[in-house]
Amino acid sequence: MPLLSSMAAPRLSLDPETARLVARARDGEREAFGELLQRHLPAARRLALAALGRPADADEAVQDASLAAWKALASLETDEAFRAWFLRIVWRKALDRRRSLRALLRRFVGIDDEDGRVVEPSAPGRGAEALAIDGEMARAASRIVHALPRRLRDPFLLAASGDHRYEEIAALLGVPVGTVKWRVSEARRVAREKLDRLGWGGGR
Amino acid sequence: MRPESNAADAAIDHAARLLVTPPPDEGLLARVVARLPERPGHGLRLWLIPVASAAALAVWLVFSLDVASRLAPTPPAVLAAESWPAIASLAWSVTPVLPPARTPVNGPSRYRRGRPVVDEGAWGLSPVSGPTPLDIGGLSTVMGVLETLDVSPLAVEALRSPAALSEMKE
Known about the structure:
The complex is a heterodimer. Chain A is mainly α.
């Protein structure tokens, strides 16, 4: 399964520069904290987006998490571990937001339609791979992935973001690494079956 | 693997990647930094909450006891010793409406609801001992309080015996 193995990329953040920035931020330097955020903001936004589905919600979760991280900076035990620590806060904030009353209303009552964000295949900057994919199939795949059960969709999207190793995903989700791998594989299998039923794919 | 399957897999992976690709952040970092308070927090230690509460309670307790001891005109035991005849009288005042204790006496008489009843029964109350508050479950509290407050045995005995009460009143 070549695609699966290429999705989760190892990223480590054990670098002395991070430790220096954290130390300066602890001393109250907001610029240093901003620099730390800048390094991890893209991953944080992808993480929140995987949980929430709406970019606006994801950005609000990241803002909340950033404030919480600033306030709790002293509880960070090792300065080099900032990235994992910060992303855990982002994930928790995103889950809080997902469980909020407003999110539940949006999900079950449908107070707005942005939640079902379907990615258009003609979006710019998608590369050659996207150009090879039929537009209809891409839209169907997007809907199917979005509609996956959360226990499958969360690890699948986190792995798809390319920001996290399976071990990090397991730590975020609070499940064993083997479970994460199985869920990612299962998410792909379920999505492919649904795509097959819609007439796409080879019916493997 | 057939080409269609490759295309389906690619479509699924591509959809997943795009679902976690946010649009440009439009100054998100600047907004976050602008909202940061002046100083970073030092972490809220949740275990401090019960500890601080217990400490505050202890301080309040010590302070209250100190104030109470300064304001009280007499120690509680002295108060009780001075007022025990009133307490005993109160206890006796409710006695007639309560059923008598069943104690063996000599003779055919017994008391019912505080009054002598002549009948053939061999069980009744001695006119001397009478129905005492101590025979009544609820009033045992009074005794408990008096004993706790270290009232003299004579005072306690007055509750047990009408004769002793009369002597004390005199």
